[in-house]
Amino acid sequence: MASTNRWVGKSLRRKEDVQLLTGKGQFADDLKFARLTHAAILRSPYAHARVRSVDTSKALELAGVFGVLTGAEVGRLSRPFPTGMPTRLPYFSAAVDKARYVGEPVAIVVAENRYIAEDACELIRVDYEALPAVTDAEDASRDGAPLLFEDLGSNVVNQRLLSYGDVDHAFANADVVIEHDFKFHKYSSTPIETCVAVAQYDQATGVMTIWSNFHGPYSLHSFVAKGLNLPENRLRLIAPTDIGGSFGIKIGIIPYLTLVGLAAKKTDQTVKWVEDRREHLMALNSGAERTAYYQLAAKRDGTILGIKAKYVDNNGAYIRAPEPANLYRTTGNTTGPYRTPSLQIDANCVVTNKSPTGPNRGYGCQQLYYCQERMVDLLAEKLELDPAELRMRNLIQPDEFPYHTPSGGLYDSGDYPAAVQKALDMADYATLRAHQEEARRQGRLVGIGVATGVEPCVSNMGYLNIAFPPEQRAKPRFHGKSGAGEAATVKLDPMGQVTAILGSAPSGQGHEILVAQVIAENLGVSPDAVNVVAGMDTFTRLWTISSGNYSSRFASAGLSAFAEASTKLREKILRVAAHRLGSAQDQLRVVDGKVFVGDADEPAIDFRGIAGIAHWNPDALPDGMEPGLQVTHLFNYTPARIIDEKDRVNSSNTYGFIAEVVMLEVDRQTGEIEFLKFVSVHDAGVIVNPQRVEGQVYGGLVHGIGGAMYEELAYDEKGQFLAGSFMDYLCPTAMEIPDLDIGHVCSPSPFSTMGTKGCGEGSAMTAPAAIANAVNDALAPMGVRINELPLTPSRLWTAMNGAGATKEVVLAERGNE
Amino acid sequence: MKIKGETTFDASPDRVWNILMDPEIISQCIPGCQELKEVSDDEFSARLRIGIGAVSGTYEGTLRINDRVPPSRYAMVFEGSGRGGFVKGSGEALLRAENGGTVIAYDCDVEVGGLIASVGQRVLEGVSTFLVGQMFSKLQGFAAQEEAA
Hints:
The complex is a heterodimer. Chain A is α+β, with helices and mostly antiparallel strands. Chain A has 21 helices and 29 strands. Chain B is α+β, with helices and mostly antiparallel strands. Helix content of chain B is 33%, strand content 51%. Chain B is globular and about 45 Å long. Classes of the chains: A alpha+beta, B alpha+beta.
């Protein structure tokens, strides 16, 4: 690179900090509209009930009410959302004939203001016929369970048996086989900003415009259009400049875009709906609960030979795309960082009378690594090996990259032993173990947990097809998927200024400064000089079908697109300059927006002069060159291939790595956990802005700690939702977070333009595993094991004090040494 | 949720029974009861205003008395709904003479749904116990009056 400045790798501050810190952010709720009306949603108080009738007459009599849309009308006006699996479920944006979870919309009221709309909801009389509810996925899988969709005859709506390598051989030849069961609970994310949708329908053009904080994947644009019964070119989705967090849960289908859209169309009003916190907790996407049965085969020296696992995912009442991908997103990295040669997964997607699930930071990985890393620790216990040493023996070695996993993953790069060693060194592992020994002698319950995980970034749409069996995929009418792309536009404006336009809407990560740094690096300008346009508009931006702010993809897919676009623009700029100056292009260098020839001290021309030619005087351009200076680049990862006939798929495109070492103490009296050490080492490839990465690492860790110890969307056995406020749904605050020691190693990705990988999900995937391992290690002297989350004081106390411990203790174990 | 317990009246089972079966008295003893109407011999309709935690609202519903065996037992089924969600349940009350008074043993299975369940679950059992206690203490007042009369 000819530039002399180096911007990549510096901790520059976010461009939007000043606006946000002075309260001038532009969030969806801040947008102003003429003649705006407001909606409130009436929701089912029943987990499972037939909706016999909905009487809206009293509500319609209330002054200020413009209209009410009932579930039955939604059924008539729209089409069900598509589901990315062979079984079709009639999922609409409101309950058409049956309500299948507490909080499912039954009607939506449009009124002058939210107060009137809420009052009108109270005047709607719904005649429910309560039906038996089922909340547990395994209960729901049994014969005779209440059926959510009678026509289907089963609540198990997607099932795949996936086999990779010779797993039977592995188990037949193992020195030791261990078998354990795990439960991973239902929890969510807590963005400060809840969902917002404003919809406006233009009767003349037939265009529906929806302003919302949905931020992709824009593959779901077509799903929303289908829900609205509109052709795609009549649906315009707009996201504002600022989105107040998401962490995955705003990227699944948000049924409200459709529901509010239908209400706007029916009432011929511009309708705004803002989700309140209870609605958010009760009915927006959350991570899926998983019951898992694991068997692991190993040699006496600890070499893992194979894994058999049965996943039973509780996906709630409906399948909201991209679900059931919680089962499949991890396909390529199912074996994590280990050289496990064989694998069998019995994947089950079950509907129950709980709220529907969707991606939650880590999507599928927290469930996967929680179980797998517990298994590794249990193997270590069985073989009387140190758990860190056992991991070291199984790690993929640095000279094996790019590494093909048995399930189709193509790990781009890594040095897992170095990262684990770094974590152990940072924690001073040997000393921690010595301290633990000492503490145990004093009767204290001190435990150490190690966990590792491969962090998949930039999902390949191809993995979605795993929900279909190979014979179905082989049919000529089946259209397979592949790809992982992003769009970027970079322009040199008529007066020589640089503008960059995102193809996806950030949700607080600070993508803007990363773009400015990459462009500054490539064009030879200051990042301050780059105007970055955030937000999204599906009508005017250029985007790819997989575009969007999800799957830890911006630093790799997004920045690759900007690196390519700005490199192309640089070529164009230099071509114009070379033509103008009559010198060879390779003699030119750019510093601070000025072009120098050879070693000259004085610039020969600046960007303003070059823009002057390209925009204002195309006559002076080289022959055949387009006027203007703008480039849009559509980047696509080439390893994002279609699934093969053996169900192998490279489900992501770059793969980071995480190694964690945790030391904690469990209070014997109260069951409370106190962290004594928390080390987290990450490999996110080339880091463009260390401060941004640090923010993501902290966020992921806190989310992981929340999931491991606090957060739970609890239900009673009848399907009543019990966590409708922050009094009941506990989120960790700064007070609960220990000092975190964060370290990095760097294995540049050969597949992204600048060697970047993602880091947005990070320890949300591994912290629950590390903490659970540490807690179990702490309780080991008492002979107590806990294979459930969250690790609340009451759960630990109960386990330590016997009652219920039998249930929580290992359900089965066998060894055939 | 289970609401289960025993309470003692200083009155004979016959008297207690009559009090329990008198809609006029009952309506004065149920906390927040705004209206209790006899729809038929065994069925009553009611309107109650109750606050649980931050959720207060008016609930309308019905109560059906089954299996009356005066003066020793009856069963009931009730359901109601309002802004705060719904309540429904069934239960049984057993009356027995003891030490010159009457012991009522009650055992109800109550299902609470909607807003109350999602934000009030932590306080629900405490509030229910409190309300049931309040009702019985008023009923005991009536029993004492009648006894004196």
